[in-house]
């Protein structure tokens, strides 16, 4: 099962050549991640300010197939995968809305669950495990 997020490319997302600045694709993907959490019922303010749990990104990469321009409508497909009790990975595909079968970028982020003060690994919360499990059923 996947989650889909739609976003318009804004002028501020582009570089001097008029194409989406490479790092902004990861920002778009993170927006999709946050939207999926909200859709699942997770309160973002509580999630990102927790004193007991933090889930930093420990790896990210992006592959570009063709440029994206200001005004393009993007569909971002998000597909998480659990990697044990304390980490997960999210795979993203970015499509131009007018040509859904043509992906323009693919990205990947790997996340690990830690305690914010000790910085030591800990198990994902029940809430995050349920979020991950919701993508396994369909």
SSE layout and pairings?
Blueprint: E1 3-8, H1 22-40, H2 44-49, E2 57-64, E3 73-82, E4 87-96, E5 99-112, H3 126-133
Antiparallel strand pairs: 1-3, 2-5, 3-4, 4-5
Per CATH, the architecture is Roll
Mean pLDDT: 94
Q: What is the count of DSSP helices, taking H or I runs of 4+ residues?
A: 3
Total domain count: 1
What general outline do the C-alpha atoms trace? globular
CATH superfamily: Hotdog Thioesterase
The structure class reads alpha+beta
CATH C-level name: Alpha Beta
What is the CATH topology descriptor? Thiol Ester Dehydrase, Chain A
What does this structure look like?
The model has no long low-confidence stretch (mean pLDDT 94). The protein has a single domain (3-133), classed as Thiol Ester Dehydrase, Chain A, CATH 3.10.129.10. Strand 3 and strand 4 form a beta hairpin. The protein is globular. It has 3 helices and 5 strands, in the order βααββββα. A 5-stranded antiparallel beta sheet has the order 1-3-4-5-2. The chain has 138 residues and is of the alpha+beta class. 24% of the residues lie in helices and 35% in strands.
List keywords for this structure.
globular; alpha+beta; 24% helix; 5 strands; 5-stranded antiparallel β-sheet; 138 residues; Thiol Ester Dehydrase, Chain A
Brief write-up:
By secondary structure, this protein is of the alpha+beta class. It has one domain (3-133): Thiol Ester Dehydrase, Chain A. The protein has helices at 22-40, 44-49, 126-133; strands at residues 3-8, 57-64, 73-82, 87-96, 99-112.
């Amino acid at each position: 099962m996947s989650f889909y997020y739609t976003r318009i490319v804004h002028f501020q997302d582009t570089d001097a050549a008029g194409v989406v600045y490479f790092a902004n694709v990861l920002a778009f993907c993170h927006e999709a991640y946050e939207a999926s959490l909200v859709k699942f019922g997770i309160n973002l303010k509580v999630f990102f300010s927790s004193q007991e749990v933090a889930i930093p990104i420990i790896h990210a990469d992006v592959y570009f197939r063709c440029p994206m321009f200001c005004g393009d409508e993007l569909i971002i497909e998000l597909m998480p995968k659990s990697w044990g009790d304390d980490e997960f990975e999210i795979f993203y595909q970015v499509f131009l809305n007018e040509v859904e079968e043509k992906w323009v970028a693919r990205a990947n982020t790997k996340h690990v669950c830690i305690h914010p003060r000790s910085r030591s690994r800990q198990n994902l919360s029940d809430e995050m495990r349920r979020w991950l499990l919701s993508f396994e059923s369909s």
